[in-house]
Amino acid sequence: MEVVAESVAGIDVHQKQITVTILIGSESVKKPKKVSKRFGTTTNMLKNCGKWLKEHCVEQVLMESTGQYWRPVWQILESFDFQLILCNPRIVKNIPGKKTDQKDSEWLSELARYGLVSASYVPPRKIQELRESTRSRKKMKESLTRTKNEIHNILQRSNIKLTSFISDLFKGSGLKLLNMIINGEVLTINSVTKCMHGKLKASPEQILESMDGVLSQNDRNLLVIQMNLLNSYLKCIADLNDLIDEQIGEFSDLCHRLQDIPGISSATAQVIITEIGVDVSPFPDVHHLASWAGLCPGNYESAGVKHGSRILHGNVYLKKALVTAAMGAKITKETGLKDYFWRLKSRMCAQKALIAVAHKILRIIYSLIESGKTYREYKKDQRKAITSVQISRI
Question: Which residues form a coiled coil (predicted)?
Answer without folding.
Answer: 130-157
